[in-house]
Amino acid sequence: MFLENTVNHEEQFGWIEVICGSMFSGKTEELIRRLKRAKFAKQNVEIFKPAIDTRYDEEMVVSHDSNEIRSTPVPSAANIRILADGCDVVGIDEAQFFDDEIVSVCNDLANRGVRVIVAGLDMDFKGNPFGPMPNLMATAEYVTKVHAVCTRTGNLAQFSYRKAINEDLVFLGENEEYEPLSRAAYYKAMLDQKVKKLDVQEPQELKSKPTEENA
């Protein structure tokens, strides 16, 4: 269970919270919940998201269950360092899409006394650690891993399986393009995908021996 840190006014350092998991696991929903609690407590809160994420809205951070909170889209992590001046709490959604500087930005803010809450995919569609997320998780005080429900087995899902035929690492999509799968279901799906890609070639026909006329 995640327990929010108590504020010690004698210690002027903040902290980093990372919320990670697969698609459809409730990462953004949990991020919004924590940020709204901070707003209710009259804290100065700013929320940022990558400018490329326009799936639901250009400015709002929106969860899959249509919960939302206003944010500032930024093209790079460096913009957050400037725009977050004077904040008590900073929220960052879809952190995996930011450049590696997001790690130093979050640590700089925490060192200035800011509570930083980051949400993002911990693995890409190939099952590999996604962008800056591993380093964010390593330097964070709190890491919360949330899970979706596997659409094929009903078990806990931690993999984001891409149904669409696209090999780009960054490919925005929803349930038409992705589905959450458990380890077993993901392994089977990836195996089936590899089998379909196999190029089965027919054996070449044996060349006939040259005839006397062609000799």
From TrEMBL:
Predominant place of localization: cytoplasm
Annotated GO CC locations: cytosol
Single GO MF descriptor: ATP binding
InterPro entries: P-loop_NTPase, Thymidine_kinase
Keywords: ATP-binding, Cytoplasm, DNA synthesis, Kinase, Nucleotide-binding, Transferase
EC number: 2.7.1.21
TM region positions: none
Binding positions for substrate per the UniProt entry: V170, F171, L172, G173, Y178
Coiled coil: none
Amino-acid positions noted as binding ATP in the UniProt annotation, renumbered to this chain: G21, S22, M23, F24, S25, G26, K27, T28, D93, E94, A95, Q96
Enzyme kind, highest EC tier: transferase
Active site: E94 (proton acceptor)
Pfam families (alphabetical): TK (PF00265)
Catalysed reactions, as listed in the record: thymidine + ATP = dTMP + ADP + H(+)
One of the GO biological process terms: DNA biosynthetic process
Intracellular or extracellular location(s): Cytoplasm
Family the entry assigns: Belongs to the thymidine kinase family.
Binding partners and assembly: Homotetramer.
Record protein name field: Thymidine kinase
Organism: Christiangramia aestuarii
Source lineage: Bacteria, Pseudomonadati, Bacteroidota, Flavobacteriia, Flavobacteriales
This protein's encoding gene: tdk
